[in-house]
Amino acid sequence: MSGTINAIVARERDGKVAGKLEQLAVTDLPDEDVRVRISRSTLNYKDGLAVSGRGRICRRLPMVCGIDLAGEVLESRDERFKPGNRVLANGYELSEKYWGGYAQQQRLKGDWLVPVPEAFSAEQAMALGTAGYTAMLAVHAIEDAGITPDDGPALVTGATGGVGAVSVMLLARLGFRVTGATGKAEGASFLKALGAAETIGRDQLARESRPLESETWGAAVDSVGGTTLATALAQTRRGGLVAAVGLAGGFKLPATVMPFILRGVTLRGIDSVMAPQDQRRRAWSALADRIDPGRLARISRVAPMSELPSLANDILDGKISGRVVIDVNA
Fold it and tell me: Which of 31, 218, 239, 245 has the smallest number of Cβ neighbours within 10 A?
């Protein structure tokens, strides 16, 4: 095992921790059981924070950034994986405590790996990535609660983002009348092409809400948090469920207990980072069954790893709709 690889590595430079493209020796990779040749990764909001240095994501330095990866096993000390197996990884504190997917190769624990579904190429798997997998976990939470389209329309906040866009596709596929909340001028046409029945401006939710408002939503997927989540809860119908998956709009929740004790609303947090393997495999299997490849292609594009420093700022500034797949070999 010799040679060098390209990687986005976060280090402290001039008093700021940020990621930069550099070369590493293959022998620098961590001593984990499975060595993977990575072909694709993807860009998530959390990756934007790590690479740009605008959020303290990396808890150890130096750190190879990237919370997602898909590729092929090169060698393995784990009997569950053989050379040539196609695998992916999401979460598990990659890019925080452990070296992640913005590299041409990586060594990983076998416990972190999931087989890439036969229906997906590496590029399609990463067009979904953590965002798509998180969206599927949220939709499973809604389904497992017994909520159906008969219980009312579904709201998706931050709908033009990665989690939001995939949530719109999945909920529409299940027959829900989906409303996407977005602040982007082009958001309406983008979301309706994915199956949304209608869109609303994010300002209709990102405001101080009353403890209870008109019952509107049977279910919701929220990636914003803050006042947006509080308003969604206040508008959720009796017995409905809101799946909270992100905090792009803030981590505080200025809400009351009224939706919970007077309408029996459930607020369900979605932990995609440390979700157990059975939930992960169920989610990826469901994505393979339910995602329309044509619609997935419409919400994704491929960019070279060399562009990550600028793309990181773009995603944080709300300039990216849909998904950006990262070609780690370009």
Answer: 31
